[in-house]
Amino acid sequence: MFRGFYTVATGMIAQQRKTEMLTNNLSNVNTPGFKADQSSMRAFPDMLLSSLGESKTPVKNGSNIPQLSTVGALNTGVYMQETMPLYTQGDIRETALATDFALLEGAMPVNEETGLPGAVFFMLENPDGENRLTRNGNFALDGEGFLTTAGGHYVLDQEGSRIELRNEDFTLQEDGQILVNGQQAARLGVAYVDDPLVLVKEGEDLLRAPEGTVLQNAYTQADAAFTLQQGSLEQSNVDSARTMTDLMTAYRSFEANQKVLQAYDRSLEKTVNEVGRVN
After folding, report:
1. Domain check: are 101 and 189 in the same one?
2. Is the same domain home to 73 and 97?
3. pTM of the predicted model, to two decimals?
4. What pLDDT is recorded for position 217?
5. Domain Flagellar basal-body/hook protein C-terminal spans what residues (predicted)?
6. Whether 6 and 140 share a structural domain
7. Domain carrying residue 97
8. Angle at CA of residue 186, ends 180 and 188, nearest 5°
9. In whole angstroms, how far apart are CA 158 and each of 99, 153, 165, 191, 249?
10. Burial of 65 by CB count in 10 Å (0-12 exposed, 13-18 middle, 19+ buried)?
11. Which of 1, 186, 264, 268 is the most exposed place for a label (fewest CB within 10 A)?
12. Total structural domains in the chain?
């Protein structure tokens, strides 16, 4: 009886976490550059149940040794093992703003270990001087003329320095060159990550590489095909229709587990109050 409680409870917890993940995806459907999360469900290891004493084996001294007889396997529930961002290209929307940049990915090298393609990201510097990555190209110029994100993170060039432009009278070329009055002012920093699944989401559409990771310059990756587009933004890659369907499925699964839990509770109540009653 109690094993059933635990199994149903794990199913409810797993579906609750999946619902939270899908809700977060939906809330960011209009966030530029946002990458939808996916979940991986796993079952706990099955237990093989056996009973002791149903049959006995006689021995020389006249006593009997109880034998084990197999009852069967018991599943102990499920859990959400991990969440993984889906690093596919989002739709491109024109904004006509000079400080809006979009990364357009082409064919990317495939990581031999994961079997998944790499990805490119804008390079940023947070207020603590640490490097961060993003696909959200919704930038602006601060009061000192530096190119920054909405959260105040500095946009870096390919040398890892802050980009100073003074005003919005500049042009971003497809190869990342930023021209002011026809002269090259900087080259937008773009990092290549061969295994983007190792990146950690931090909020504000920021990604953090594991400590000790050396970010590769995307411009030096011969097999990484991408271009930059000024006056455009990459939209979220969340499929709102599919996410809503998955959300309803997770909710129904939670409800089904809840009804099973209630049935267990009624059975236990009946056992305690009626079967065990002394007349």
Report:
1. yes
2. no
3. 0.79
4. 92
5. 229-273
6. no
7. 87-234
8. 115
9. 17, 16, 15, 8, 45
10. exposed
11. 1
12. 2
For residue 189, the tally of other CB atoms under 10 A from its CB is: 26
Q: Are 207 and 134 in contact (CB under 8 A)?
A: yes
CA distance 79 to 213: 30
For residue 40, the model assigns a pLDDT of 82
Are the beta carbons of 15 and 42 closer than 8 angstroms?
A: no
User: Which 8-state DSSP code applies to residue 271?
Assistant: I
Amino acid in position 205: D
Q: How far apart are alpha carbons 141 and 167 in whole angstroms?
A: 7
pLDDT one-digit tens code per residue, 5-60: 778 888 888 999 999 999 999 999 999 999 999 988 777 666 666 666 655 555 55
The pLDDT score that the predictor gives to residue 52 is 60
Q: Which residue has the tokens 């000192």?
A: 144
- 167 and 230 both lie in a single domain: yes
- The verdict on 101 and 200 lying in the same domain is yes
H/E segment holding residue 234:
strand 232-234
Q: How far apart are CA 240 and CA 109, in angstroms?
A: 29
Are 93 and 232 within 8 A, CB to CB? yes
**CB contact burial 144-181 (16+ within 10 A = b; e otherwise):** eebbbbeeebbbbbbeeebbebeeeebebeeebebeee
State the residue for tokens 């110029």. 141
**Same-domain status, 100 and 226:** yes
Asked if 18 and 153 sit in the same domain, the reply is: no
